[in-house]
# Entry
Amino acid sequence: GENVEQHPSTLSVQEGDSAVIKCTYSDSASNYFPWYKQELGKGPQLIIDIRSNVGEKKDQRIAVTLNKTAKHFSLHITETQPEDSAVYFCAAQTRYGGSQGNLIFGKGTKLSVKP
Amino acid sequence: DTAVSQTPKYLVTQMGNDKSIKCEQNLGHDTMYWYKQDSKKFLKIMFSYNNKELIINETVPNRFSPKSPDKAHLNLHINSLELGDSAVYFCASSQDWRGVEQFFGPGTRLTVL
# Structure
């Protein structure tokens, strides 16, 4: 089945710097890749997603890139702010028979932005 | 208005007890999910219902039984609770069975003593 690896597990940056989180997936048939932000004590919140027919997507300070050949995708946060501090999860959507819509998550990256 | 809500937020119980967690979404979505997040923050799908019908059932013990009385509600009942069931359980919903843009609830922290 699909396997998603996420790196790094922790990331500490200074306010204003950029942060990059990388994920790889194993199933070449996966075609939807969302990123979630989880703040302490809250549920994961979808922040951006990308589909396999697109190489890059931007939303203000957040961007996601996808390399289908290499089977990896990355989250880029520019001009980081303390409120960006959270755990970030990547995911890949697999489609196997009755498991349509099944999201497989990476293990998360704890991002700390120091003022 | 909360899009996906869960009750209770915290649940502390003894081993062997039976408990239920409730979930409601007011987004008009057709598909709802239960996820388990363990102590290491790993998120894993447990079940998915589309229009009240089960469409995903991962390898979950039979002690876990989801029920969907209508497409806005998906409840999770757990029998004979075990220590290993301690986790945070998240409900989520998406527009349809394709599962894109899933919205998560705030979670229910279950502690089994």
